[in-house]
Amino acid sequence: MPELPEVEIVKQSLNKKIKFKKIQKIIIRNRNLRIRIGQNFEKFLIRKKIKKISRLSKYIIIDFDKNLYCIIHLGMSGTIHLIEKGKKNLNTNTSFYSLQTFPKKHNHIEIHFNKLRMVYNDPRRFGFFKIIIGKKRLYEFFKDLGPEPFSEKFNFKYIKNYLKGKNKNIKNFLLDQKFVSGIGNIYASEILYLSRISPSQKGKNLSKEKCKKLIYSSRYVLQDSIKKGGSSIRDFKNTLGIKGEFQNEFRVYNRENLKCYRKQCKGLIKKIFLNNRSTFFCNQCQK
DNA sequence: AAGAGGCCCTGATAGC
DNA sequence: TGCTATCAGGGCCTCT
User: Which end of chain A is more exposed for a tag (fewer CB within 10 A), N or C?
Assistant: First the structure.
């Protein structure tokens, strides 16, 4: 679930629901996430008030007073659930579950506010919660991240310069968070389709025109997905709260051997593996 | 030093 | 039904 648009949706709903709230209680059932939750995690956060919630590529950053931060990453399977006391349904245009359909296993972290619980669920435990103290350390943590597609820094000159002399295909560049941050395996395929670029094309061979298309498409696809509430890929049985609609907009992802949507194009969508990650593209209109 | 591949982990699904 | 193998939206580490 979580590439940039999905993380953005989660961030937006957290801002609506837990901003300015004070943490009353913390329960940790499993400290062994990708980064182990330290013994003093609870001490740092208890009774602290949330100042704001922001996002950088696929990371959520919660700000507290005195330059205390909590960074959240959802990994492959992390989800955040909000449960309001006394309410049966949590409406929301978010990826939260309703109360009745709340997952039973893998609820590793619970943070309680007044009349509201936030629960972190993550079967694969590739995600993490990490405390950071000080602006400088926060900056350090993110220093290797490349620009987001929306950033002005993600421009033709930057791309040309970065790809120069390197021998990787363009799809793997899109997954390289040092090059551009926030794009994951699904959106990489979608962006390349919109750009009419073949995923196995070498990055260094892209024309100026193709680079510009790539910039435009990256922004367009991610923005469009955010507008539609992100993508909810799996059909989570027994759940009601998942509202993402962008999975209905996929042009290539999971469309193996189906016809290309482009009018005039007689191509078929093919699935290949590039660096062990599934990759979808049209065998006619992506060059 | 860049790039490919393994690995962390659990769950869903396909095939026998 | 029950086994095994494979794959899944991420990212870090190691080896060449």
Answer: C
Q: Which fold has domain A4-141?
A: N-terminal domain of MutM-like DNA repair proteins (3.20.190)
Strand B closer than 7 Å to the CB of A103?
no
What number of other Cβ atoms are within 10 A of residue A150's Cβ?
A: 13
C-beta separation of A6 from A230 below 8 A: yes
Tell me: the pLDDT tens digits for A21-77? Answer: 999 999 999 999 999 999 999 999 999 999 999 999 999 999 999 999 999 999 999
CATH topology of domain A156-282: Helicase, Ruva Protein; domain 3 (1.10.8)
Residue A75 CA and nucleotide C10 C1' are separated, in Å, by 5
What is d(CA A38, CA A60) in angstroms, rounded to the nearest whole number?
A: 19
